[in-house]
Amino acid sequence: MTKPTIALVLGDPSGIGPEVAVKVLAQEANRLQANILIIADEYELRKGMDIAQTSFEYDVVEQFEQANFSAGKPVLLKFKSSHPDAIQYGSATPQGGTYVLESLKIAVDLTLAHKTHGICFAPLNKQAMSKAGLQHRDELSWFAELTGFDGFGCEVNVVDDIWAGRVTSHIPFKHVVDNLSVDSVLETIELMDSTLKSAGFEQPRIAVQALNPHGGEGGLFGDEEITIITPAIEKAQQKGIQAFGPFPGDTTMWVVEKEAMNSIVSMYHDQGATALKMMGFDRGVTVQGGIPIPIATANHGSAFDIYGKNIASTPAMENALKLTVRMASSYQNKHTQQG
Fold first, then answer.
1. Which is nearest to 109 in space by CA: 74, 81, 143, 62?
2. Which parts of the chain span the membrane according to its record (predicted)?
3. pTM for this predicted structure
4. Please, are residues 9 and 123 in contact by the beta-carbon 8 Å criterion?
5. pLDDT in tens, 225-282
6. Backbone phi, then psi, for 99, in 5-degree steps?
7. Strands of the 5-9 sheet, one edge to the other
8. What is the DSSP letter of 286?
9. Burial 192-221 (b: 16+ CB within 10 A, else e)
10. How far lies 287's CA from each of 198, 250, 251, in Å?
11. What's the distance, CA 79 to chain centroid?
């Protein structure tokens, strides 16, 4: 089978992105998983190598059509940010945000054109992107605009083979209940089912969390489980989805392990993510769930405070690349068959 081609973006150059990306690509086994197209300013790539005190061979092209992956080496697609000022390292800046937005836009365009089959990006910074003019609340909604996607999407956190999505995300906690409905819970369950299937799970088993303590205790502590969450689970089951619950938030992970489930659907941002990150924050991955092209990144930030110190760990970025390859293979096969 032909290897998928992965667009790899260095993230915010003011942080640890170039360092962790270089450390991952310096390992031959990681490079050989796929055809790797690095979209970066060569200066920032080399700077990442200097920080990481490691290197690897790569070819350089001006346009994607010049890329030749037959030698098994990554190919650098040369990129220059339009921001007139030099990068300031170790902090959130408009320069870093512009670099991220422009390099990621190239990656999205190439993947939409089926020239690349998935995107793996090193950590970025929302504040820097906002300073660069991004009007969206997060990268997920920006990716939705770029890809013309108007359906439901959510960030999916992955540690090992447990995937966690959420019905509500980047909103104040006091607005969570107002944003819960049978339809929104059902949409999230359906999204998790389709996302896991795109990663090779034939029949995902999904644990749906309750909202209230003890699962509401039959309505004593709240009735959202009765009026919203259970009806959504039942509708999902009628569609052939293996969804179960609702399970109290403090015992969900025990159920997931005991019943060999693959996925969690939470009602709000930190409900499932906290337990998942406790399982393995240093190796977690974030998938842009719902977006029509595969996009994944490490489940941590740009860590400006340790920029240049060569102490950034790589398991999360390494897992992000592996997971992108896994999803990109499915995406590539799907569009090859359609073509």
1. 143
2. none
3. 0.91
4. no
5. 999 999 999 999 999 999 999 999 999 999 999 999 999 999 999 898 888 888 887 8
6. -55, -50
7. 59-61, 75-78, 35-40, 5-9, 118-121, 295-298, 285-289, 154-159, 162-166, 263-266, 205-209, 242-247
8. E
9. bbebbebbebeebbbbbbbbbeebbeeeee
10. 12, 24, 24
11. 23
Strands in 203-323 per DSSP E: 205-209, 242-247, 263-266, 285-289, 295-298
* 171: Cα separation from own chain's centroid: 19
Please state, in angstroms and rounded to a whole number, the distance separating the CA atoms of residues 104 and 124: 10
Q: CA-to-CA distance for 117 and 6, rounded, in angstroms?
A: 6
Q: Which CATH number fits domain 154-276: 3.90.640.10, 1.10.274.10, 2.130.10.10, 3.40.718.10?
A: 3.40.718.10
Whose CA is closest to 98, among 79, 118, 119? 79
Block residue for tokens 């390992």? 27
- What Rg, from alpha-carbon coordinates, does the chain have? 20
